[in-house]
Design a protein that fits this description.
- The chain is of the alpha/beta class.
- The chain has a domain of 170 residues: NAD(P)-binding Rossmann-like Domain (Rossmann fold, 3-Layer(aba) Sandwich).
- Helix content is 40%, strand content 17%.
- The chain is built from 11 helices and 13 strands.
- The strands form 3 sheets. A 7-stranded parallel β-sheet has the order 3-2-1-4-5-6-11, sandwiched between helices.
- Bound molecules: NADP nicotinamide-adenine-dinucleotide phosphate.
Length: 299
Amino acid sequence: MSAFPKIFVAGATGLLGGQIVQALLDQGAPVRALVRRGTGEEKKTALRGGGVELVEGDITDPAGQLAEAVGDAAIVISAVQGGPEVIVDGQANLVRAAEKAGAQRFIPSDFAFDLTKLDDGDNFMIDWRRQAATARAGTSLEVVSVLNGAFYEVMTGFMGLIDWQQGTLSHWGDPDQPLDLTSVNDTAAYTAAVALDPAATGTLRFAGEVMSMRQFHEAVERGSGRTLRLRHLGTADDLRVEIARQAALTRNPFDYVALQYQWCMVSGKAKFDSLDNARYPQVTPLPLTDFVHGTAPTP
Ligand SMILES: NC(=O)c1ccc[n+]([C@@H]2O[C@H](COP(=O)([O-])OP(=O)(O)OC[C@H]3O[C@@H](n4cnc5c(N)ncnc54)[C@H](OP(=O)(O)O)[C@@H]3O)[C@@H](O)[C@H]2O)c1
């Protein structure tokens, strides 16, 4: 029998959720994972092979049914991704189900920069996470939020900063503005540490690296062995104007969400004021240079 309480993970088939499950298993914690109906056998077999107990369901299922899925888990981690029906309504439903099941703690799918410092309209996907916090206000569960800045994977991929073919790294804002960055793997390790720490409370902030865009550029060059021309696209205020311009041209906000994420960071508005890394010295985050060394396309 494990020394740890059972942990229920929603979003276990996802990028971050899968690594959270692995980090929990590495610590010897018993894990029950929610998988949606129709999840492929390969994913289910991989989870089962790791020793995970699987339960079928959806966080938008009726709370009674979802409570049965949570079962005897004491801690519920949400690593789901989706629209407001998932992030706001679905997570509120999951909280109700966890209360019904008698769970004690809930870690929401926040995993971002300091969303507590942002205002409505700064980033619509972050707005949903703050709406989710409002929706669960008054819950009897202890809510612990894990924040990690931006994933290394996102900074070197989805954000669209690096163009390996053109040999450029393009950025907005002050090149000396510090940014909080963490790999998916280290975010998962911190999340597992928080989940297994009965004294963890409130909002905890972690970063694998705190570096400016200038330092990010140097680290990417060192890690990849490539020379990239640093292109300055404009100030943080110019970026805000560009976001408004793009918003006027499209009905799909996902067209410019990467720019909203960048603005929150390069403006300094969502910068962490302090870090909680020291609380978990057993987690030694990967330097960005090493991450890039292992993932950049070969020259
Ligand atoms: N800080 C950063 O740079 C950064 C970057 C990316 C993501 N994140 C955050 O990390 C978290 C996880 O994102 P991710 O990229 O790992 O997401 P992902 O890979 O898209 O995975 C999402 C997971 O949620 C599950 N899911 C979606 N809707 C569900 C529902 N109604 N019921 C149950 N499960 C549902 C999916 O299940 P299926 O497999 O069945 O679809 C999948 O397991 C999010 O909060 C996201 O914002 C942060």
